[in-house]
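Researcher: Next entry in the queue.
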Amino acid sequence: MKKAKKESFIQGVLALMFSQVIIKILGLIYSMYLTNREGFGDSGNAIYMGGYQIYALLLTLSSIGVPNAISKLISERLARGDKKGADRVFKIAFMTFAVIGFVGTLILFLGARVIANYWLAIPECEYTLISLSPAIFFVSISSVIRGYFNGIQKISNTARSQTLEQVFKTTLTILFVEIVAMITTTNTTLMAAGANLATTFATFLSFSYIFALCQRNRKADRKEIINSEYIGEKESVKSIVSKILSVSIPMSISSLLSSINKNIDSATVVRILKPLVGEVSAKARYGILSSKIDILTSMPLAFNIAFATALVPAISTARVQGDEKTINKRLSFSILVTILIGLPCTIGMFMYANQILALLFPKASKGGTLLAISAFTIIFTVLAQTINGALQGLGKVKIPAIALGCGVIVKLLTNVLLIPIEGIYENGAAIGSVLCHIISFTIVYNVLKNTVKLEFSIFRLMIKPMIATLVMAIVSYACYMLAISLGIHGSISTIIGIGVAVVIYAILVIILKILSKEDILSLPKGEKIYKILQKMKIYA
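Model: Structure for this entry, 540 residues:
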């Protein structure tokens, strides 16, 4: 593989984190556009997201576990100096998942009508499913290439391709929906299909970019790989495919169960609520849950997924080399930052649920209670996400799937029991999601604790972040209420409250010295940052 200097762990994390933040912001932009667009709204979101969740389910089967699996297998071979073996893994994986992706595309295309009518109970989803079907093939092979780049620790290439895909998706979604709206005089069903067709075009364009990047990178390495020798015996195609699937399937099952978790809502909410509140209201309620609530509660994952992704090759490499110190160092830093991200986001979204919806979706602002309940999924989801990355790197690839499987069973039972109850209705689905992620986190944390000797300071890891979050919440809400009392209403008062929360929390993280000297020095420009904090007499 390429002789150029590899990215450091934190460089890879920051590149992917920046990419994911941009992706989530762009996703929020087109979600705001669709929800506030006349003729689309919550009902359009039900059709759009109903089809998209089925696509995500098939995508999980064909590709979701692939980047981490390929990353793990390639990084392990490179750690042993087996460059030729790593290259062989990539080639065989590419062909394998091209076939799997093509099969996934055929299933979605040919089964669109049956899925829309019998699984979703939303017949209008048929066209959205058909328009999405080619995307499965392109994403499947793109996932192999992203795994290759992650494995050689060039995560920034993965980050750029994902960002580019979302830029195309946002732009084309707005363009296609407007074109369909003009042609059909705002036909909601066809507008939703147009929005999902934009996803297919975006995945094709992103694939074209990362494929060209991969070819250029591999061309530079080709001579070195040809002249190198296998470390150990040359593995057969059957053996490599078996290893790829033995790693990617458990990883995919975890993602599959996450997708099933969302599909539980698509299969139960409309179906259960239809006889209770009517078809139109049932679809609108599901549209709120699957679109606005889902995208807002998944925003913090944009910051955190970088750690889960970067931990797999980093811990896999350290494990092969027997470097326990690096494993513990990466883990402690990643879990600390995950808590620093997840805790304030959870409390902030709970406090300002109604205000956030009114700010972002002024023409369709319902769902405050749903968002307030769903906010509690954030902290447990982000923690489980980071721990899952660590467990996968440690070879415990089945544990995240088992943990989430237990959570999904509870989620299904909760939906079935609570949604029919008057006064609870769709809020039962949100409660089910919270319970699901609490159970999943509890299981993976206990397995990690029994696998690795965690060198954590509970005071620094838990108590200090909780103090910072509590003070942030009190000061922020006080400023928000002060703004209201001064006659500053609506969006301005919400922005003031949230803005104060961000500033106060950042100051408290510094004052309470939640990040250690080593944590700060590991950041880009860390030495300069530390010197400034020394001059301010915060750090010695």
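Model: The radius of gyration is 23 Å.
Researcher: Noted, moving on.
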